[in-house]
């Protein structure tokens, strides 16, 4: 499990190290593929491209159509920022780590 988590972190580090940083914006366990040797591959880059000047409403519309609310940082729904940053992917990665380690879907309890 820790090797998979490490490989995902390396992929996200690569994306975030580009100039300007590439944001995945849809990181979730269903977008992590494992090859025959159980090496992790990050997939579904449909939301990676951030269009300059895209309003938050348009971004949220695309995100809700393609993303999963369980992996979206709560500040996206409350802050007035015009564009997401790398913290968006970091939050989603934290949920992915939790799901890998517990083997449970996030937020499945009553509360």
Automatic annotation (TrEMBL):
GO MF, one annotated term: ATP binding
Domain of life: Eukaryota
Annotated Protein kinase domain residues: 1-111
Alphabetical list of Pfam families matching this protein: PK_Tyr_Ser-Thr
Protein name per the record: ANKK1
The organism of origin for this protein: Poeciliopsis prolifica
UniProt cross-references to InterPro entries, sorted A to Z: Kinase-like_dom_sf (IPR011009), Prot_kinase_dom (IPR000719), Ser-Thr/Tyr_kinase_cat_dom (IPR001245), Ser/Thr_Kinases-Pseudokinases (IPR051681)
PROSITE patterns per record: PROTEIN_KINASE_DOM
Gene3D superfamilies to which the protein is assigned, alphabetical: Transferase(Phosphotransferase) domain 1
């Amino acid at each position: 499990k820790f090797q998979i988590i490490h490989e995902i972190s390396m992929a996200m580090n690569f994306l975030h190290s580009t100039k300007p940083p590439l944001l995945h914006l849809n990181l979730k366990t269903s977008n992590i593929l494992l090859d025959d040797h159980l090496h992790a591959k990050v997939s579904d880059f449909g939301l990676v491209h951030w269009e300059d000047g895209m309003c938050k409403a348009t971004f949220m519309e695309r995100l809700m159509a393609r993303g999963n609310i369980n992996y979206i940082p709560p500040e996206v729904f409350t802050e007035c920022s015009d564009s997401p940053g790398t913290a968006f992917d970091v939050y989603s990665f934290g949920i992915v780590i939790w799901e890998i380690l517990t083997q449970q879907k996030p937020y499945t309890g009553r509360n």
